[in-house]
Amino acid sequence: MSGKNDLDKLRNTLSFHVPEKGSWKAVTPADYPKFMAAAKEQAAKGAREGGQPIGAVVVHLPTGQILGRGHNQRLQRGSRVLHAETDALENATMTGEAGGPPVPDNLMAECGMFTTMSPCPMCAGACAQFGLKLVVMAENETCSHGEFVLAHFGIEAVNLKDGEMLNTVNAWIKGPGASTWDNPELAVPLRRWIADEPGNPKGWVPS
């Protein structure tokens, strides 16, 4: 989607909050830190709630609009599936605000995911499910379990190697998260799946 007519069609028929002519700007790598800052705000929200400091935003790449925001809620809500990325996908609307019309799947394919941690296999699979072409992560030293899924589906993965976010996560792991992060009931099945299942290309293991 690159032409004015396409943008007008979105604005008129789908209530998409597209900036007026001349003010919208396609996302470039120079913009990645700005969107990562929005994901960090979500990570801080999760930490304030007593959860894991992991956040994400869904961004419409042709216009630079943030359509969905989310944070990990595994601990707060006892949810197995509300990771930051899946929460952001669930919350994505055409206006970028709660209660707006959901983003149609064909437009979701024009979006990118900005997440403070490299996505797990479930979240990487969710990005693939909706056709996202780009995943930008703050860091992947604490988790890289899903990156072979991104590679398998041809999703561009960009690691910003954000030391500040890495320090934040490591501080949580050594502090409030000490009793949950390395819980064998969570970690062992995932690591076994990554190492042993036939879907793992060429014996890829987390770095």
Automatic annotation (TrEMBL):
GO biological-process terms attached to the record: nucleobase-containing compound metabolic process
GO molecular function annotation: diaminohydroxyphosphoribosylaminopyrimidine deaminase activity
Sequence ranges assigned to domain CMP/dCMP-type deaminase in this UniProt record: 30-156
Pfam family, one: dCMP_cyt_deam_1
Protein name from the UniProt record: CMP/dCMP-type deaminase domain-containing protein
Organism whose genome encodes this protein: Cutaneotrichosporon cavernicola
PANTHER family attached to this UniProt entry: CYTOSINE DEAMINASE, CYTOSINE DEAMINASE FAMILY MEMBER
CDD domains referenced in this protein's UniProt entry, alphabetically: nucleoside_deaminase (cd01285)
PROSITE patterns the record matches: CYT_DCMP_DEAMINASES_2
